[in-house]
Amino acid sequence: MYIADFHTHYACPAYPALPPRNTAPELAARWQALARRIADLDGLLAESGRYGVDLRVLSAPPALVTPHGERTGPDDLRRLNDHLAGAVAAAPDRLRGLATVDAFGGEAAAGEAVRAVRELGLSGLVVDCATDGQLLSSAAARPTLQAAAELGVPVFAHPVSPDLLTEAFAGLGRFGTSLARGTINAAALLSLLGDGVLHDLPGLHVVFPMLGVAGLALAAATDEGEVLTPRAAAGRAHVYVDTMGYAPAAIRFATDLLGADHVLVGGDWPIGLRDTTRERVAATLTRAGLDGEQARLVAGANALRLLGAGAG
User: Fold this and answer.
1) CA dihedral of 14, 77, 269, 150, whole degrees rounded to 10
2) Where are the transmembrane segments (predicted)?
């Protein structure tokens, strides 16, 4: 199988990766080493070769490289994306890049999205799923989402750490951090569905990590959730989920709901505790009960389709 890891973090060394807000002690203890790995492209390529990963999709969501309480400035976004384009160009058969975009930056953000795709050749966008009490369905984010739809490239909606939820769940340690991030991610997905953004922009393709799977579960229990499934045919919303790890039951749920053509391998490199390897991907998809064609799609074919000539 062709293996593509859609959820791989890489940041320009001039913009060190920052730990999530109110990071659990377990992650904080690892962060210095993680930040070095996130800036080490040669190390990532060497690891991918050892583990049999054919393609890495690189991304640095704004919250990963911007101090809490600040916004990623336009000049910073340009530098991040210029550097990413150069990194991808050094190994085009092994790397693709998602442009870092402040989705809540209105028309200026949309302009950077267009530049990054058309001039730099990046394959999609990565955005924070929420900011300052706003979710992705907000008016401020509409220009960026519309630009992505018109460009035919995917938008990766990455989790953030909202203060109230992160503090409320702090007693759960790393599970609390993940729960807070997953909750806001699920809310962002539901906002796109409930506020009609996915209906208004039929060309929009959005990818959410498995961390926000509660959004899928809630949507599946409503009439509106039908637009997520293959049964919706022409009216189907283009929502994808990356596995963000290797839990067979979660992958089975996502493929049952969305269809195997809307699920992508994602390891959350290097933050995820289990590395993406050819053996792990194959074993997990088998345990999830996927047949050969379904496994081929999830392992890499879906990512290639999304990142290729449009998102058809």
Assistant:
1) -160
2) none
The total of other beta-carbon atoms located within 10 Å of residue 96's CB is 25
- In whole angstroms, give the CA distance from residue 58 to residue 26: 25
**pLDDT 10s digits, 1-56:** 999 999 999 999 999 999 887 777 878 888 999 999 999 999 999 999 999 999 99
Residue reference for tokens 């109110």: 22
* Residue where the block lists tokens 């499934």: 229
Q: What SS3 state is found at 18?
A: coil
Cβ–Cβ < 8 Å for 103, 112? no
> In the chain, what's the furthest Cα-to-Cα distance?
48
- Strand 205-209 relative to strand 154-158, pairing: parallel
Tell me the domains of the chain and their CATH numbers.
Answer: 4-307 (3.20.20.140)
What token pair was written down for 251?
């992958």
The C-alpha angle with vertex 272 and arms to 269 and 275, in degrees rounded to 5, equals: 70
What is the chain's length? 312
